[in-house]
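About this split. The held-out portion is used to measure sequence recovery: a designer receives only the structure tokens and must propose an amino acid at every position. Recovery is the fraction of positions where the proposal matches the reference. Here is one held-out target exactly as it appears in the evaluation file.
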């Protein structure tokens, strides 16, 4: 007596475990990736031998070497009334402190102009940001 044999082989790949493995690999690579935060405003600060200032609630004014002006990382046009923009920001901070981060290649006259405008807007204290002198 001859038995009928089923010669067709059905291959079955378990895809549910494959999806789990791919998901675990994805999580592993996301966690092991290092993220580098690039500053939005590129400024080369002048060097000085001063101590670091403790972080405070200060109004930050950035001035790039191509004379672009930022207040708390928001770009401001030179043609606007800077004192009227600065005044509410200064009074909103507890210390009435303005920190100026100007690129070392910026004309000194522009820095003095910003300092004068900040004083007119009500800043009680002004600071110019620097970086430590690199030792050779």
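Reference sequence for scoring:
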């Amino acid at each position: 007596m001859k038995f009928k044999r089923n010669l067709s082989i059905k291959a079955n790949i378990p895809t549910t475990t494959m999806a789990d493995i791919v998901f675990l690999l994805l999580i592993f690579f996301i966690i092991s990736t290092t993220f580098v935060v690039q500053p939005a405003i590129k400024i080369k600060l002048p060097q000085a031998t001063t101590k670091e200032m403790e972080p405070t609630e200060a109004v930050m004014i950035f001035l790039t070497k191509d004379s672009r002006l930022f207040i708390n990382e928001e770009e401001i046009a030179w043609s606007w009334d800077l004192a009227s923009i600065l005044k509410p920001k200064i009074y909103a901070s507890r210390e009435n402190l303005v920190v100026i981060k100007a690129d070392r290649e910026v004309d000194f006259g522009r820095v003095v102009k910003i300092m004068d405008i900040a004083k007119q807007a009500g800043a009680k204290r002004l600071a110019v940001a620097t970086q430590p002198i690199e030792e050779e």
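Annotator remark: The radius of gyration is 30 Å.
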